[in-house]
């Protein structure tokens, strides 16, 4: 009897030791995984910071070059009235294309998405590309001369489309889960009247809190075209 009892005790001890070893291995693997994730996140953070610094440096170089171009243009314009008129046309074209930083009177719209109060709230209603396109159209109809969404300049070539969990504007992402700020420069009274018109924000009431305010000094940054504008199919009529 004592023989079987001894064997049973040995087997029980082995089971306990096996369980403890398995548990220890699991803890070690988990810690290793967490450590690996932390290292990966750190690497990504460092890489993003490097990209930001590179972007800032490139932007500085672009600004310096544009200042030189402006000085050359001003020097050329002073030589004749024809060159001066040509320079004015170039400036107007840049304004139209959003290639110049501008400031003036206008309106700022703040859209704050409503948070889901209950965990079982499975509604898919949220701000979409259609909401933003609608507001841009309303602002343009009210005479807005320059518009930006989250400091992304709206140009004649801008597309606003839902892309996955985000809204894609000029190859940049806007999250429908975070505050969206829309700036518009123009006659502030007309823009305010357009936004105050009954029904303009009807589609926003259930999904967001919103407000708008006029200002005498709004700045909208230029859009830096990442690639030269090239038309493969649209050709001028001779």
Task: Give the SSE map.
Layout: H1 2-77, H2 81-97, E1 102-113, H3 129-141, E2 146-149, E3 152-153, E4 160-163, E5 166-169, E6 172-174, E7 180-185, H4 188-196, E8 208-220
Antiparallel strand pairs: 1-7, 1-8, 2-3, 2-7, 4-5, 5-6
Helix pairs in contact: 1-2
Organism: Clostridium rhizosphaerae
Family: Belongs to the UPF0749 family.
Coiled coil: 34-82
Protein architecture, described:
This protein has 238 residues and is of the alpha+beta class. It has three domains: 1-59; 60-91; 101-220, 2-Layer Sandwich (Alpha-Beta Plaits), CATH 3.30.70. It has helices at 2-77, 81-97, 129-141, 188-196; strands at 102-113, 146-149, 152-153, 160-163, 166-169, 172-174, 180-185, 208-220. The strands form two sheets. Strands 3-2-7-1-8 form a five-stranded antiparallel sheet, with helices on one face. Strands 4-5-6 form a three-stranded antiparallel sheet, covered by helices on one side. Strand 5 and strand 6 (172-174) form a beta hairpin. Helix 1 runs antiparallel to helix 2 (81-97). It starts with a helix and ends in an 18-residue tail after the last strand. 14% of the residues are buried. The model has no long low-confidence stretch (mean pLDDT 80).
């Amino acid at each position: 009897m004592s023989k079987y009892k001894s064997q049973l005790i040995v087997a029980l001890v082995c089971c306990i030791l096996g369980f403890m070893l398995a548990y220890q291995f699991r803890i070690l693997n988990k810690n290793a995984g967490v450590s690996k994730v932390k290292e990966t996140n750190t690497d990504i953070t460092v890489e993003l910071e490097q990209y930001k610094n590179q972007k800032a440096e490139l932007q500085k170089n672009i600004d310096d070059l544009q200042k030189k171009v402006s000085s050359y243009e001003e020097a050329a314009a002073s030589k004749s009235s024809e060159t001066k008129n040509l320079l004015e046309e170039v400036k107007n074209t840049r304004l139209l294309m959003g290639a110049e930083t501008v400031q003036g009177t206008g309106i700022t719209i703040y859209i704050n998405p409503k948070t889901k109060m209950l965990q079982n709230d499975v509604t898919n209603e949220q701000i979409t590309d259609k909401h933003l396109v609608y507001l841009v159209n309303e602002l343009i109809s009210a005479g807005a001369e320059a518009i930006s969404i989250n400091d992304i300049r709206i140009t004649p070539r801008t597309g606003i489309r839902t892309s996955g969990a985000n809204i894609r504007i000029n190859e940049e992402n806007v999250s429908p889960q975070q505050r969206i700020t829309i700036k518009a420069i123009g006659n502030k009274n007309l823009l305010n009247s357009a936004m105050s018109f009954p029904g303009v924000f009807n589609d926003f009431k259930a999904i967001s809190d919103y407000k708008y305010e006029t200002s005498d000094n709004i700045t909208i940054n230029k859009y830096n075209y990442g690639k030269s504008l090239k038309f493969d199919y649209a050709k001028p009529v001779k």
